[in-house]
């Protein structure tokens, strides 16, 4: 007898609300934080580099509630209130792509962006983490990732400038912080 697989309603999970300096102020469900006009909350974005200096991108799955099918950094998400950003990022790398590798934080930035397709809003205090990984992601989760690609950072920056609608609105900020420290 097989048991049904356990699924998590990611929209019901709690995120940590923050003030304009990134200090924790409370919590609310993911769905509430992303309902217009949006509530400023803690998030993370991971960008992995390979030995050749390329970055690993993912195309977000079509079922994503925010910015579906747009190209983004390697993975992203929200730490639970009080959870370590690094620990949360490592967990999401495994969940989304089947990758286990060390990551470290290189900075933060704040952004707000509305998704015209879904009507949701991103208003995030984003911690950018980078790490090293070589090879192909062993187990991309199709509910999270539609596709992936290794890209040279300079080619990515030019592509974002030429066709910004293909990319998530936070990707440029993530790339800028990652390149400064890599």
Low-confidence segments, given as residue ranges, are 1-7
- The structural class is alpha+beta
Q: CA-to-CA gap between the ends?
A: 49 Å
- What spatial order of strands do you see in the largest sheet? 6-3-8-7
Major sheet attributes:
4 strands, mixed
Percentage beta strand? 25-35%
Sum up the overall morphology in one term: globular
Radius of gyration: 16 Å
Helix proportion range = 10-25%
Number of helices, counting only DSSP H or I runs of 4 residues or more: 4
- The total of beta strands comes to 9
Topology order in helix (H) and strand (E) letters? EEHEEEEHEEEHH
Question: What is the mean pLDDT?
Answer: 93
Binding site for Mn(2+): 34, 41, 78, 122, 124
Protein name: Isopentenyl-diphosphate Delta-isomerase
Enzyme class: isomerase
Active site: 76, 124
Write the layout of secondary structure elements.
Blueprint: E1 14-18, E2 24-29, H1 30-33, E3 41-49, E4 55-60, E5 71-72, E6 75-77, H2 85-97, E7 103-114, E8 121-132, E9 145-151, H3 153-162, H4 171-181
Parallel strand pairs: 3-8
Antiparallel strand pairs: 1-2, 3-6, 4-5, 4-9, 7-8
Catalytic activity: isopentenyl diphosphate = dimethylallyl diphosphate
InterPro entries: Idi_bact, IsopentenylPP_isomerase_typ1, NUDIX_hydrolase-like_dom_sf, NUDIX_hydrolase_dom
GO molecular function: isopentenyl-diphosphate delta-isomerase activity; metal ion binding
């Amino acid at each position: 007898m097989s048991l049904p697989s356990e699924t998590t309603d990611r929209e019901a999970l709690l995120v940590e609300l923050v003030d304009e300096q990134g200090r924790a102020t409370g919590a609310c469900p993911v769905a509430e934080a992303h309902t217009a006009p949006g509530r400023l909350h803690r998030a993370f974005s991971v960008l992995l580099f390979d030995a050749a200096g390329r970055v690993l991108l993912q195309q977000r799955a079509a079922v994503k509630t925010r910015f579906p099918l747009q190209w983004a950094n390697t993975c992203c998400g929200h730490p639970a209130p009080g959870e370590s950003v690094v620990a949360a990022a490592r967990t999401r790398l495994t969940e989304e792509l089947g990758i286990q590798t060390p990551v470290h934080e290189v900075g933060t930035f704040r952004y707000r962006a509305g998704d015209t397709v879904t009507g949701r809003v991103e208003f995030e205090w984003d911690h950018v983490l980078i790490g090293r990984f070589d090879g192909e992601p062993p187990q991309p989760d199709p509910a999270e990732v539609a596709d992936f690609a290794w890209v040279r950072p300079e080619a990515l920056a030019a592509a974002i400038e030429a066709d910004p609608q293909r990319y998530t609105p936070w990707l440029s900020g993530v790339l800028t912080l990652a390149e400064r420290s890599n």
